[in-house]
């Protein structure tokens, strides 16, 4: 897929999220890497996406129809989170390491700059985990959140600037953003390692979508996967021993479409070995954001199927 094509795909992504896929059943599941068992938490004949696991282990967070919901893990009951004016949230959201804050990506306008027109697109905000009024972090759009630093001071995200999608970081207080990738082609999905030393991300730098790792200052970039799959969204386990990621069975170029045949796979960082955990219909919305349980033995994801 050329640059124009993946730019169009990213511009349309929020529209697909808000419109909701029709005739789809979404199933929120938990996978246990010790027992290899899948557990169904919630299933609806509706479209929802992208679970996060709370720091205290009691609930999962998903987005649906531009809003965010908590799914209690004792009752499996779904309740709306108060995000104030932010009612056009996409699937790039997540909880800080201390469990106190929530980062969201909400369709909005860029911060006004004298002499320049404002733009509409995904913009990153933070708010208390219990809900409240969001505070803008990124002045520019589009910006798609993907990771909190372990100390809670910086956010990592994918952003389009001048036609190129790259990895950036910014202070939670806003200000100037720091660009970390400059290669031609899509760089996406940055997430901090639990020790704060690295950022894992997916990139087209090698000519196809693979998982990479770099230092948090953007140095020492290293490709970690190299196979026949299109590999996206590496999520490091809380103990730093593994990362789980999603793999499309067929090459998707720079695209990350929904309703494709995919597998969730686990890389052992001590030896680089990869284990396939499960396969199903999914893709966009399945595991876009961090979703490990605090115990590091389980993670959450969403599988899909057509109803008709």
From TrEMBL:
SUPFAM superfamilies: DPP6 N-terminal domain-like (SSF82171). Gene3D superfamilies: TolB, C-terminal domain. The keyword Glycoprotein does not apply. Keywords: Signal. It comes from the Bacteria. InterPro entries: 6-blade_b-propeller_TolB-like, WD40. Residues 1-19 form the signal peptide. Belongs to the TolB family. This is TolB family protein. The lineage of its organism: Bacteria, Pseudomonadati, Bacteroidota, Bacteroidia, Marinilabiliales.
């Amino acid at each position: 897929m050329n640059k124009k094509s993946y730019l169009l795909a990213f511009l349309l992504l929020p529209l697909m999220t808000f419109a909701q896929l029709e005739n789809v059943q979404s199933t929120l599941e938990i996978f246990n890497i010790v027992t290899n068992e899948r557990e169904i938490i919630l299933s609806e004949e509706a479209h929802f996406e992208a679970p996060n696991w709370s720091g205290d282990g009691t609930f999962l967070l998903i987005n649906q129809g531009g809003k965010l919901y908590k799914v209690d893990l004792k009752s499996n009951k779904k309740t709306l989170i108060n995000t104030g004016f932010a009612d056009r949230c996409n699937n790039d959201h997540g909880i800080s390491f201390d469990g106190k804050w929530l980062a969201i990506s909400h369709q909005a306008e860029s911060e006004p700059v004298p002499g320049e027109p404002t733009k509409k697109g995904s913009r990153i905000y933070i708010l208390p985990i219990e809900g409240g009024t969001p505070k803008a972090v990124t002045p520019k759009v589009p910006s798609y959140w993907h990771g909190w630093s372990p100390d809670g001071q910086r956010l990592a995200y994918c952003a389009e600037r001048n036609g190129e999608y790259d990895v950036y970081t910014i202070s939670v207080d806003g200000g100037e953003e720091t660009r970390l990738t400059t290669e031609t082609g899509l760089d996406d999905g940055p997430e901090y390692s639990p020790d704060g030393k690295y950022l894992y991300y997916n990139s087209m730098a090698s000519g196809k979508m693979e998982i990479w790792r770099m230092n948090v200052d953007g140095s020492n970039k290293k490709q970690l996967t190299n196979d026949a799959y299109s590999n996206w969204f590496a999520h490091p386990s809380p103990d730093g021993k593994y990362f789980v990621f999603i793999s499309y069975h067929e090459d998707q170029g720079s695209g990350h479409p929904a309703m494709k045949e995919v597998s969730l796979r686990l890389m052992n960082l001590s030896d680089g070995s990869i284990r396939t955990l499960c396969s199903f219909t999914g893709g966009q919305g399945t595991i876009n954001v961090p979703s490990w349980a605090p115990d590091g033995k389980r993670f959450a994801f969403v599988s899909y199927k057509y109803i008709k």
